[in-house]
Amino acid sequence: MRILLAEDDASQAESIKDWLEMDGYSVDWVERGDHAILAVEQHQYDCILLDRGLPQATGDDILKAIRRQDSKTPVIFITAKDHIHDRVEGLDLGANDYLVKPFNLEELSARVRSQLRQHQAQAGQYLNFSDLQLDPQAKTLSKAGQAINLTAKEFQILYKLMQKPDHILTREQLEESLYAWGDEIESNAIEVFIYQIRKKIGGQYIKTIRGLGYRMHQE
């Protein structure tokens, strides 16, 4: 699950990012509003956390830009603006939730989980392909009803493939799933992870499209 965090307070952003990554989420952090708009245009996020007082473009501006092209992705305002008028205004703009600073990180996690559950309930909770079933919220995978253990990085790559089973995803697109861990990505990392996933689920589900990338495959 990939989260965008738009927060210009570096200390607070690092705390939030570290906390959510310990919860198993992939987190992209930007400090400026214009960078947040660019990130939303270039990537698909499962949840977005927005500070309302960002430089270059405000959280309100970003939310309006998001809602013009995407009415469904959960957006949570995280802000010091705690007047009732501010809360009502933020929710009326299209935010799904409103969390006032300072807040407890456990409460933030709970609110993120709540929004993801609601979003998945509307879209269908599970991703299914052949006899594979992936639960994005619980971060679990089963094959014909039998649990399969994947590492966090393996899960993210398979999740991305199963989100768009009819599309060919390039190595670069799949590498985006690994950036949040902060590790240097080896040139053959995707090939290695695909090999490991195939060993666990069977070689027939992921097809290599030579020179292009990978896609899900059903015989």
UniProtKB/TrEMBL annotation:
GO cellular component: cytosol; protein-DNA complex
Protein name in the entry: Response regulatory domain-containing protein
SUPFAM superfamilies linked to this entry: CheY-like
Modification 4-aspartylphosphate occurs at: 51
Recorded coiled-coil stretches: none
Alphabetical list of PANTHER family matching this protein: REGULATOR OF RPOS, TRANSCRIPTIONAL REGULATORY PROTEIN TCTD
PROSITE patterns (UniProt xref): OMPR_PHOB, RESPONSE_REGULATORY
GO molecular function terms noted in the UniProt entry: phosphorelay response regulator activity; transcription cis-regulatory region binding
Keyword Nucleotidyltransferase: no
Domain Response regulatory: start-end pairs: 2-116
GO BP, sorted A to Z: regulation of DNA-templated transcription
Source organism: Acinetobacter higginsii
Residue ranges constituting the OmpR/PhoB-type domain according to the UniProt record: 124-218
Residues in the DNA-binding region annotation: 124-218
Pfam families tied to this protein: Response_reg, Trans_reg_C
Keywords, in A-Z order: DNA-binding, Phosphoprotein, Transcription, Transcription regulation
Superkingdom to which the source organism belongs: Bacteria
